[in-house]
TrEMBL record:
The chain crosses the membrane at residues 12-32. The lineage of its organism: Eukaryota, Fungi, Fungi incertae sedis, Mucoromycota, Mucoromycotina. The keyword Transport applies. Solcar repeats lie at residues 9-95, 113-197, 210-294. Gene3D superfamilies: Mitochondrial carrier domain (1.50.40.10). Keywords: Membrane, Mitochondrion, Mitochondrion inner membrane, Repeat, Transmembrane, Transmembrane helix, Transport. This is Mitochondrial glycine transporter. The keyword Transport applies. One of its GO terms (molecular function) is glycine transmembrane transporter activity. One of its GO terms (biological process) is glycine import into mitochondrion. It is a multi-pass membrane protein. It is found in: Mitochondrion inner membrane; Mitochondrion membrane. It comes from Rhizopus delemar. Belongs to the mitochondrial carrier (TC 2.A.29) family. SLC25A38 subfamily.
């Protein structure tokens, strides 16, 4: 039985498991996240943007920094973000499960409704949490970029609010939502499917496979499928957050990229993202499920002693 199939657990368990998984994943993979941001930033000639930024009084000199630049805002986003996501996911799944009698007749079998529950629950949870964490996401992207000479997170935050207003802290949310919500839903859809297939294969061939290995492998495979599907929106999100003067909204940004860079422009940074995103999701889910499994084993042992 997987963590998602367990009866409802204490919220602290999901928050703790999510926070721990988010911390490990974001610190380990931060260099890939920074490289992806830089790749998506540099394809286009930025002279027009630099001129506009200078007119607004921003410092835009390139800045040398290590591959872990932006780790602090990444932790500030991913740790609470992962904790909130896994908590929200468990709550939404519980609500959907309780309302199953209303829509179950339209599904052909039990596996059908479980797959669509995963798709809906993952998308809803990620979309909501993404909005809450959006200001930190914008600060993180700007801080990682070398278009700005930010020396601290507080300076980045103050500069964004001063030049773009509060609205600037939510720049690119449309693209972020269209990227993250489907990614989470598609990921969970395939993740549970791959796990089910792996476990069925192990049972039919009488070859037991470690749960952590099944989770990790399923996570990587599901992450690759979801990453390819949502890549264009990830690129648009980065452009809109780095250059809100030029990329004003989702449709205008998509049209601009297509006219100036063609279809391939939407896939800037996909090579790095195909490495980072599946690993990030796989590590996060593996750690989360192991935390929940450890708690369940501990709970069972305590009950047996009573």
């Amino acid at each position: 039985m997987t963590a998602l199939q367990e009866k409802k657990q204490t919220p602290i368990l999901h928050l703790t498991g999510g926070a721990l998984s988010g911390m490990v994943a974001c610190v380990a993979l931060q260099p890939l996240d920074l490289i992806k941001t830089r790749l998506q930033q540099h394809r286009q000639d930025h002279l027009a943007f630099l001129k506009e930024a200078k007119n607004k009084g921003l410092k835009v000199a390139p800045q040398k920094s290590g591959l872990w630049r932006g780790t602090i805002p990444t932790i500030m986003r991913n740790v609470p973000g992962s904790a909130l996501y896994f908590f929200a996911l468990s709550e939404i799944r519980q609500i959907v499960s309780n309302s199953r009698s209303f829509w179950k007749p339209v599904m052909n079998n039990n596996k059908d409704h479980q797959r669509w529950e995963n798709l809906f629950s993952g998308s809803t949870a990620r979309g909501a949490v993404g909005y809450i964490m959006m200001p930190i996401t914008v600060v993180k992207v700007r801080y990682e970029s070398n278009l700005y000479n930010y020396t601290s997170l507080s300076q980045a935050f103050t500069s964004i609010v001063r030049t773009d207003g509060i609205r600037g802290l939510f720049a690119g949310y449309g693209a972020t939502f269209i990227r993250d919500a489907p990614f989470a839903g598609i990921y969970l859809f395939f993740y549970e499917g791959f796990k089910s297939w792996a476990n069925d294969y192990a049972d039919s061939h009488q070859k037991p496979i470690a749960n952590a290995l099944v989770n990790l492998g399923s996570g990587v495979a599901a992450g690759m499928a979801a990453t390819c599907t949502t890549q264009p929106f990830d690129m648009l999100k980065t452009r809109m957050q780095l250059k809100p003067v030029i990329y004003k909204n989702l449709l205008q940004s998509a049209k601009k990229v297509y006219l100036e860079e063609g279809i391939m422009g939407f896939f800037d940074g996909i090579s790095v993202r195909l490495i980072r995103k599946p690993l990030n999701s796989a590590i996060s889910w593996t750690i989360y499920e192991e935390v929940v499994r450890w708690y369940n084993r501990k709970d069972i042992l305590l009950k047996e002693k009573l």
